[in-house]
Structure of DUF2303 family protein:
Amino acid sequence: MSLSKEAVQLITDNALAAAGKVLPTNTPAVLVPDSATVVDLERYQLGRSRFRGTYSTHSLADFSGYVVERAAPDAKGFIDQDAMSCVVLFNIGTPLNPGHADDRAVLRLKASAAFAAVQAVGGQAMNQKAMSDWIEDWHQHLVATAEDGTGMSIAKAIAAVRTITVKASSESDHAVGETRASRSTMDQIEASSKETLPAWLDFKVIPFEGLGEQVIRLRVSVITSGTQPVLKLRWIGEEAQREEIAQEFKAVLDEKVGAAASLSLGTFDAK
């Protein structure tokens, strides 16, 4: 008696399903028929097969406490200084005994309101009202200094910004010779104020929760190319100071969680 093609396929599928033939691959795999379905039974168990999940926070103190509490022998952390973030993988395992790397804690520091404000204003062209309003809003963080190095009150700094005037003058030179005549004109534009304008504004701020205080020096510039004066604040030594903040971030993490996880600079993609 000959068997139909469908009957032969059914017998083959049943044999494969019963045997679950293991394939010689680096990653464990078995041969099953197309009609078979793999069912994850974890949801029917009393508990999960293993602990996994992601804890995320902006708080350095809470992140440190969680990592210390969950300390694992092979836990590894990766610090991204550009993003001011850190990821700790508790079950990353080792090259000889790799883990799933899906039990993790993630820290993303959030800039304080004051630090966000000083970053937003740097290099921005502002009219007199906008600049005086900004100084008034953040006066508790500011110390004003005149060009000669003497200190001045914030009230005087605000008054000086509000009373800037622009004066324009022209100077002409004429020269006449036997065969030629020449003329040159030089325009001068000068900005002045009834009060002494601040040359620098020192902005005291804690950039991120858990880090120390920084003093950001802002150079005050007045631009007179338009019909109205425009002011700008330039963060002096911005790149160097940002690097200093990033280094402090790494140092604080080393101090707080270095014993609970091995920390490295960089990022890790657990594919």
